[in-house]
Amino acid sequence: MSTSRLLTDDPVVVASGARLLSEALAAQAVPVADTGFRPPMAGAEGDTAADLARVMADPRRAAANAEAVRRLLAVRPRLVDVRPAGEALGLRRGSFLHAGPPVGWERASGPLRGALMGAAVFEGLAESPEQAEAELRRGGADLEPCHHRGAVGPMAGVVSPSMWVFEVADAETGRRSWCSLNEGLGAVLRYGAYGPEVVERLRWMSEVLGPLLRDAVRAHGPLDLGAVLAQMLQMGDEGHNRNRSGTLMLLRALLPDLLTVGAPASDVAAAADFIGGNDHFFLNLAMPAAKLMADAARGVPGSTAVVAMARNGTDFGIQVSGCGDRWFTAPALTPEGLFLGSYGPEDANPDIGDSTITETCGLGGFAMAAAPAIVRFVGGDAGFALRTTRSMYEITLEENPAFQLPILDFRGAPTGIDVTRVVRSGILPQINTGMAGRVPGTGQVGAGLVTPPAECFTAAVAALALQAPEPSGAPAAG
Amino acid sequence: MSTSRLLTDDPVVVASGARLLSEALAAQAVPVADTGFRPPMAGAEGDTAADLARVMADPRRAAANAEAVRRLLAVRPRLVDVRPAGEALGLRRGSFLHAGPPVGWERASGPLRGALMGAAVFEGLAESPEQAEAELRRGGADLEPCHHRGAVGPMAGVVSPSMWVFEVADAETGRRSWCSLNEGLGAVLRYGAYGPEVVERLRWMSEVLGPLLRDAVRAHGPLDLGAVLAQMLQMGDEGHNRNRSGTLMLLRALLPDLLTVGAPASDVAAAADFIGGNDHFFLNLAMPAAKLMADAARGVPGSTAVVAMARNGTDFGIQVSGCGDRWFTAPALTPEGLFLGSYGPEDANPDIGDSTITETCGLGGFAMAAAPAIVRFVGGDAGFALRTTRSMYEITLEENPAFQLPILDFRGAPTGIDVTRVVRSGILPQINTGMAGRVPGTGQVGAGLVTPPAECFTAAVAALALQAPEPSGAPAAG
């Protein structure tokens, strides 16, 4: 405000912190603009305010975050191949990848256990889910997070050697990421179902769908996933729980090659039916595209940018650019939302899956303003979708110019979660997600909204504080 | 406001009409809610205010409009066939349909002349566009509006016997409507281009695309266009200048049948390429679906609902339910918007095409809130898209529960334009549209925003006033 306006305009009070002051002023008819300040989050242990001050004072922080986000935004993800997971990820018989941070059988959630049992039967390691369960309980399998192999998996995220995976590569650097093929909704492995129809579908996907997609993708050449994602945001998708237009654009792009690779017409028709009948098929391409973007931001010393958010159904974990491959975990919360059929809140497992890699890159819950129709799937209303995206700008470092949100006049999606902004503002990343049944074998029970537990972020800030250089003038510790 | 609130709350002045009062109050810091009232439109002839009062007093009006809209909303449009226009519409050699109200060669606009010249060459009636022009100038062809045969055509809307048309039927009543197949953008017949590549494309569409689509549609069985339109509004399309998701959903729906009707794989691949490469392909299905809906509302005595809005590039015409097949016309306005390449406003022809049948049914400009990305094609910003849809509720009779707009919390699209509301409010229907080059042969020059001329609506009100029963107590005229 210029001096002249200060003299001529009515004064307005800007209030921050406790509401007592602004309420007293408002009661006296004094205009008050409340900034909505909240004190920083209280950490589960240690002195979060001091940690935060230490990290905020780290002279490397601004440049490190700019570099992390620059790398993330420079990624050009392209679908380049479809391959068996064993070959693509170096997975051996008896090894299984899973979603989220590391977890063993003892602490594994119901849907993760169910998916492992189904995968063991699919791999021929057991003749029945019961036999598989006994085998898994006595430790007869190697479990490892997808993220540790450059991969991501939705919900339980179980990947076994005979499953096929999409291979996505960065056109700039050649780096790669992988994700399984989407099975559809309902009673499917990733939601913890393991019945005969689940295993049968996985067999068809490995024997027919995977090889056919491989031939079509190789004939097509690299398929620009960034361009598809950009279009999706203009077509009511947010890339996590709405992938309708993305799936249709994938089908359109691969169609000429599917028609001409010489596969039996019945296989092509079955594949087109399967893909066209599953509005979530593109999720498993949005995820490895986001994984490739997020991975580019890893390992920048001093950066407070989140490079992974993932859940195994028991724990929620995040990884931060300046903290290497360390996971900051806390018990996963349970989503609230809309339920299928007669299922209710008591049937829902806590939050599960690597699909939060989409939110890590400005998609999913962060881009809900572009996909207001999603509220019929996850709950809320159109205003909630708009408010959610707007509030995510408060905790992110950049607006992605490639992911434009038309309803916000083509503002770029809020991208690059900053743990210091989360802890300072108390605003947690908004995730929209499917909900798996708590009991192994159930499948999907609904979809809803959830956030990470705050402790992941305060723990990350504490770790960053330990690495931050001593503030100048203060004596060095130890 | 209850009596108690009247005593305790601060008074607020509601002002209507001339701004003088509200401005004076505002200058004295008195809160004023301005209702935005404007006096009714001045008619080109006659006493519009008296006509309006007479029509508003027509005791049949409310029930007649309810019936007209009830019929419109009850239509279930389904694609049932693809046929040659000659056969489907009873068109003979030397006959041409065109968009908009009736017009002869002398008053025909450049793009309509260009399209007629191209169609004459395509039909083998002339060997060159120049020869065709001479033939048409001397009256050697029958011209008739598409609307007079239950059909609609985008832009110039020229249909000749050898072109193929979509046939759409109402599942409730069996009534039918027709529309040509979409040629794509740029130098195409409907934008007035007539070069060899235009005629060549029309030949391929009649020899390959039409028969292939016929076979696929017949194998598929009736395809529910209402369901596709409902989905489109959740996927960033408004059904007039954005039909991206609609086109993809059509392709997905017909794909299994395209693959299995026994056509050569190269034809199927070419058709899939042509449809998949033209984001406007579904427009030519949105239009006959809307035509079928609007036609259902025709002929209700006393109804003030608009049942057609159409332009031939010279005149804009509307038809009203209570006025039979009479056209109310006035000179078409020229759209303002965004231009392709080096084209500018001086290259644009006045408003042209039957595609305003979409706005007549709550789609297009009326549903722009569902398609904010369209502003990059026609101009404006996201706020304009939202305001446009909101203001269209002011001039419509109903909200279509089948066409839900997610960003407005699934409010039904504003449907059933009421000429009395248009004249009372001074709010004209908002149309978004492609722009054809003024000079025959040019093709598309841009896309933009336009309204009908106000005179169409005042003339309709005058005609309705003549038909309205004498107000009780007044002496009968004549």
TrEMBL record, chains A, B:
- Organism superkingdom: Bacteria
Write the signal peptide boundaries: none
Annotated Pfam families: AllG
Q: Which InterPro entries match?
A: AllG-like, OXTCase_su_AllG_h-dom
Q: What is this protein called?
A: DUF1116 domain-containing protein
Query: What is the native source organism of this protein?
Result: Streptomonospora halophila
